[in-house]
């Protein structure tokens, strides 16, 4: 069941959205270290790592018998974005962030998988010439039963 859990389907839906952004060349499911970035060809940038967190239950609904029959959880999905930016990293970051922002807000329900979507961005970015990196976070609220996440 875990391979098809609602959590996994939500993360995959986010990754699929990112893959449709024309500016993004490569997506991963793991965070990249500086040494790993050096292994990518220039044509593979920008690279976006889509990393799902563990869902946190925020609301529980009980049936008449007192058992939990519906759970509303919050799921964070982080987007670690790596790009080549020898000069003017701020401009390159603005451009990619704008493209991602538009795409991630286009389908806020993730094709019916989630109740709501909120996007936040880390106000800091990293720059280790020739690489720049920034992080965006999408927080979804979604409902599921007690039988899985």
In short:
With 149 residues, the chain is of the alpha+beta class. The protein contains 3 helices and 7 strands.
Question: Any overview of this molecule?
Answer:
With 149 residues, this protein is α+β, with helices and mostly antiparallel strands. It has one domain (2-142): Alpha-Beta Plaits, CATH 3.30.70.1700. The protein is 24% helix and 38% strand. It contains 3 helices and 7 strands; from the N terminus they run αβαβββαβββ. The chain has helices at 6-19, 34-37, 89-106; strands at residues 26-28, 47-52, 56-62, 68-84, 116-121, 126-128, 131-144. Strands 1, 2, 3, 4, 5, 6 and 7 form a 7-stranded mixed β-sheet that branches. The longest helix has 18 residues, at 89-106. The chain starts with 5 loop residues before the first helix and ends in a 5-residue tail after the last strand. The model has no long low-confidence stretch (mean pLDDT 93).
Mean pLDDT: 93
Instruction: Tell me roughly what share of residues is in helical segments.
Output: 10-25%
Number of helices: 3
CATH superfamily: Phage minor tail protein U
CATH class: Alpha Beta
Low-confidence stretches: none
SSE string: HEHEEEHEEE
Strand content: 35-45%
């Amino acid at each position: 069941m875990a391979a098809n859990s609602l959590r996994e389907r939500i993360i995959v839906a986010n990754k699929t959205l990112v893959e449709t952004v024309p500016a993004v060349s490569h997506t991963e499911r793991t965070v990249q270290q500086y040494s790993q970035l050096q292994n990518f060809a220039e044509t593979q940038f920008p690279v976006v790592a889509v990393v799902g967190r563990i869902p946190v239950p925020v609301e529980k609904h009980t049936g008449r018998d007192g058992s939990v029959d519906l759970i509303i959880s919050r799921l964070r999905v982080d987007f670690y974005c790596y790009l080549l930016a020898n000069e003017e990293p701020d401009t390159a970051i603005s451009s990619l962030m704008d493209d991602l922002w538009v795409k991630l807000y286009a389908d806020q329900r993730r094709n019916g998988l989630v109740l709501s979507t909120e996007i936040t961005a880390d106000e800091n970015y990293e720059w280790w010439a020739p690489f720049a990196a920034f992080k965006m976070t999408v927080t979804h609220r979604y409902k599921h039963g007690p039988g899985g996440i």
